[in-house]
């Protein structure tokens, strides 16, 4: 285990393999364990770097600093600490939001960007938006982290053969610090950089599960606004695609990274 400190917050990270640096960012209420089915393959080709965002995993759970922009600055501090130079960046869900923020704020630190089941904004514009988020806000505060984990596990891994994934998620979710989880949850609501995504110049892959919370068409609309982006849809998958369709996900991501390396040679920064 390795740690570094950024602005008074101690953050946990891990490294595996050698080669071009590849950073993997987890989702809300999770940790770098999101990527356990990717590390063995990806570390054969890349220097894989995992970060537990503040409030998650083995990182500190401070009382403040829960904004997507702050998570992005924590990432920059880690890359400077490790002296990585430009990286390939992959973000799942909240990790994808951090990826979007990082891409528009620090473009020269990116070789490529991969966004998984995420979006460049979470805005409450309609009455249904407000009602949906109000319900989630209330449930997040009323329920224990153990109860939330059981409900999410059943929704994300509903098949009988996914019992092991359900149990694993329930156990991991129970480890959440509820205060840190709620503050991270609040950081997502009304965040957005959608008006800036046309500035992203590095090769970008957006991976969308066909049964994600938001429709594939929504992802297609923002992919069309990013100059060098394309969309890959993974079938029979829900929000936790790296876990429920690990093999297809791994090959999709690896093919993208390989094509970027082939087309750009030494991969100069964006």
CA-CA gap between termini: 31 Å
- Overall number of strands: 8
Number of helices: 10
Q: Classify the oligomer.
A: single chain
Q: CATH first level: which class?
A: Alpha Beta
As a percent range, the share of strand residues is 15-25%
Keywords: Hydrolase
Protein name: Alpha/beta hydrolase
GO molecular function, one term: hydrolase activity
Organism: Pseudomonas shirazensis
Can you describe this structure?
The chain has an 8-stranded mixed β-sheet, sandwiched between helices. Strand 3 (21-25), helix 1 (39-42) and strand 4 form a beta-alpha-beta unit. Helix 2 packs across helix 3 (94-105) and helix 5 packs antiparallel against helix 6 (163-173). It is built from 10 helices and 8 strands. With 270 residues, the chain is an alpha/beta fold. The protein has a single domain (2-125, 192-264), classed as Alpha/Beta hydrolase fold, catalytic domain (Rossmann fold). It has helices at 39-42, 68-82, 94-105, 127-142, 145-156, 163-173, 178-188, 216-223, 241-244, 246-264, and strands spanning 2-6, 9-16, 21-25, 47-51, 87-92, 110-116, 204-209, 229-234. GO terms for molecular function: hydrolase activity. Residues 21-244 form the AB hydrolase-1 domain. It comes from Pseudomonas shirazensis. This is Alpha/beta hydrolase.
């Amino acid at each position: 285990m390795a740690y570094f400190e950024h602005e008074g917050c101690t953050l946990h990270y891990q490294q595996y393999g050698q080669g071009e640096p590849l950073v993997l960012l987890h989702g809300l209420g999770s940790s770098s364990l999101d990527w356990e089915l990717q590390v063995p393959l990806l570390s054969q080709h890349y220097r894989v770097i995992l970060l537990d965002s503040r409030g998650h995993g083995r990182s500190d759970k401070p009382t403040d600093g829960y904004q997507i922009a702050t998570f992005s600055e924590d990432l920059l501090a880690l890359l400077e600490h490790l002296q990585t130079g430009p990286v390939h960046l992959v973000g799942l869900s909240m990790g994808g939001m951090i990826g979007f923020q990082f891409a528009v704020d620090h473009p020269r630190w990116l070789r490529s960007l991969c966004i998984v089941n995420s979006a460049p904004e979470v805005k409450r514009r309609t009455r249904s938006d407000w009602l949906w988020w109000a319900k989630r806000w209330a449930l997040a505060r009323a329920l224990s982290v153990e109860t939330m984990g059981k409900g999410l596990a059943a929704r994300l891994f509903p098949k009988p053969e996914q019992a092991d994934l359900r149990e694993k998620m329930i156990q991991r979710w129970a480890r959440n610090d509820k205060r840190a989880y709620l503050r991270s949850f609040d950081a997502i609501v009304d965040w957005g950089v959608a008006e800036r995504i046309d500035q992203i110049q590095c090769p970008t892959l957006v991976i969308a599960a066909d049964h994600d919370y938001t429709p594939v068409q929504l992802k297609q609309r923002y992919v069309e606004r990013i100059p060098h982006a394309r969309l890959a849809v993974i079938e029979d998958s829900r929000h936790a695609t790296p876990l429920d369709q690990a093999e297809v996900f791994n090959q999709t991501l690896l093919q993208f990274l390989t094509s970027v390396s082939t087309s750009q040679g030494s991969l100069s920064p964006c």
